């Protein structure tokens, strides 16, 4: 009887050891595999996409929608004389640019006051703020084109705010402009992936992690477009 028990115990012990080894190897593989980047648009923004456009950057060079293609971009809408939401937005964008330095993430700001925000003014503003223009592009263009992007394609409110006036350096004033105040994550096919509140550190952390993950994945040839997204 004892002779039968010993071989059975040995076999059981070997089986247990092999099972444990298998679990450890599997756990290590799962732990070392990076999480798949989330290229699926959030439900609230599903179907929104940066349209075709022609605008000028801070150097006066022409830019088109192609600047958003094949990469991940954080986009906002601003104007250089804005004293309300814009300072917080530019600070949040700059913090993200610093945190994401060394990645392929790019940043873009479209002026909602193209009458005053000429390329020269945008360059002056970015220089004053010491912003990294090698990764951050400021855009200005025809007012109707800006409205088409903001209100038409992205479905934001945009227009004059007669309740608040803004003093200008030349002694005149302008009406405030109601415009989007979220930072917008744009995917490699110009699709809107999500919108984030620059006043909330938790949302900025989520935006940073998501942008970093997507940017890292775009260098890999096996990343496929989201099913049903435009090509």
Can you offer a commentary on this structure?
This protein is of the alpha+beta class. It contains five helices and nine strands. A hairpin with a 5-residue loop joins strand 8 and strand 9 (about 190-195). The protein is globular and about 50 Å long. It is about 35% helix and about 20% strand.
**Number of spatially distinct domains:** 1
The total of helices stands at 5
Mean pLDDT over the residues:
86
SS strand fraction: 15-25%
Q: What best-fitting shape do the alpha-carbon axes yield?
A: globular
- Quaternary structure state of the chains depicted: single chain
The CATH architecture is 3-Layer(aba) Sandwich
The topology string of helices and strands comes to: HEEEHEHEHEEEEH
Give the strand tally: 9
Low-confidence stretches: 4-14, 20-35, 222-231
How many angstroms separate the termini? 72 Å
Q: What top-tier CATH class fits best?
A: Alpha Beta
* Largest beta-sheet details: 7 strands, mixed
């Amino acid at each position: 009887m004892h002779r039968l028990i010993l071989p059975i115990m040995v076999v059981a012990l070997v089986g247990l050891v092999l099972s444990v080894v298998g679990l450890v190897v599997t756990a290590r593989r799962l732990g070392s595999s990076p999480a798949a980047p989330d290229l699926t648009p959030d439900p609230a923004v599903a179907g929104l996409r940066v349209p075709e456009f022609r605008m000028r950057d801070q150097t006066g060079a022409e830019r088109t929608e192609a600047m958003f293609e094949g990469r991940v971009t954080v986009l906002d809408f601003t104007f250089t004389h804005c004293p309300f939401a814009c300072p917080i937005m530019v600070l949040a964008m700059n913090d993200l640019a610093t945190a994401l330095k060394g990645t392929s993430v790019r940043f873009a700001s479209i002026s909602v006051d193209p009458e005053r925000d000429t390329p020269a003014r945008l360059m002056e503003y970015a220089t004053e703020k010491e912003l990294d223009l090698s990764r951050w592009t400021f855009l200005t263009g025809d007012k109707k084109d800006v409205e088409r992007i903001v209100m038409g394609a992205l479905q934001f409110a945009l227009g004059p705010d007669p309740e608040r006036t803004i003093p200008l350096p030349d002694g005149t004033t302008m009406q405030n402009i109601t415009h989007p105040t979220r930072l917008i994550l744009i995917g490699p096919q110009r699709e809107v992936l999500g919108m984030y509140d620059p006043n909330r550190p938790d949302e900025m952390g989520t935006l940073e992690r998501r942008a970093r993950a997507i940017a890292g994945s775009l260098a890999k040839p096996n990343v496929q477009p989201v099913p049903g997204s435009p090509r």
